[in-house]
Amino acid sequence: MREWVLLNPGPANTSPRVRQALLTPDLCHREPEFFEVMRECRQRLVRVLGAAPAFDSVLFTGSGTAAVEATVASAVPDGRSLLIVDNGVYGDRMRRIAEAHRIPAEVLRYDFTTPVPPADVARALREHPEISHVTLVHHETTTGLLNPVEAVADVAAAAGRRVIVDAMSSLFGEPLDVTRAAIDFVTASANKCLQGIPGISFVLARRTALEALKGRAPRSVYLDLGNHWVTQEQDNTPFTPAVQVLHAMREALVELEEEGPAARIARYAENCRVLRRGMGALGFAILVPEGARSNILTTFRLTPGLTYDALHDAMKRRGCIIYAGQGEIRTYAFRVANMGTLTPKDMQAVVAAFAECLAELTS
Ligand SMILES: Cc1ncc(COP(=O)(O)O)c(C=O)c1O
After folding, report:
1. Which residues have CB under 6 Å of ligand 1?
2. Tens digit of pLDDT for each residue in 193-246?
3. Buried b (16+ CB within 10 A) or exposed e, 52-63
């Protein structure tokens, strides 16, 4: 089987060591041997972020959306409402989650290349005293846009409100102070910048916010954040977890600690610099304005005469998987992520592959 260079924003390339960890002996999920792995993952998550002891982590078997939906459905008390920042597909997904759970919501909507101005959040919070939580995506994977999470958290703190951050595609890949005042919940998954295997998502949560969930009627049976936390704290699990995926996640966390979170962030930034410099020389312009771009994913405009499908297939023949733009963006742009085990040298090879494709498709 061929090894692909994954330029989609997760699942990302992993190390052989992480994949090897999947081959754990069969294990019952209600035995101490499994709970040891679960507890180690939960503890390593908060430790590597320097978030202990104020924060704890809660694991979900499910894709990233499971952690987001569990948090949105659990955090907002009855009678209160949510302020949602929507400047991409994942902001909109939080709006749909709130709607599905009948949680009243105000939405601040921007186009896909505009970060939320914190002053807009301050105004909305002044106008809507019923809002208990602000929720926003740190890195909008739709385009590679970064929202100013810490500035929004400061505005929320000043207004006495709490913040939920979807950091799915940025946690461990971009700097983020998860312990910033007002931030109660941060959601992410194993298979992006953590460099683990898909199947587990998690919530980093302030312990006081988790305590506040006790005794509340849940809006969901499976996605009940409070129940998962209380049960995991007792070294137990309410449902059958992805046993093998969790073993791989533990290995990914060990690797992260070995590399160091700052070094990983720096590697991604260098990957990104190599990619953007090379693509710029080939004539590809970047959709998101400078200053609002992450170092994890870039949306490039298609050059004249190039279609996404042709470029995708030509790159795939060279072992590289690029990613379509979402919605109508697909017609004029495409995405290239540089997360996972990729190195600056790999990104040079990716740029060389793009150059070959360009010559093949536009000559
Ligand atoms: C910012 C963001 N939020 C949520 C998700 C949802 O994750 P999943 O597809 O794993 O449910 C993604 C996935 O790419 C994402 O990038």
Report:
1. 9-10, 63-65, 68, 90, 137, 141, 166, 168-169, 189
2. 999 999 999 999 999 999 999 999 999 999 999 999 999 999 999 999 999 999
3. eeebbbbbbbbb
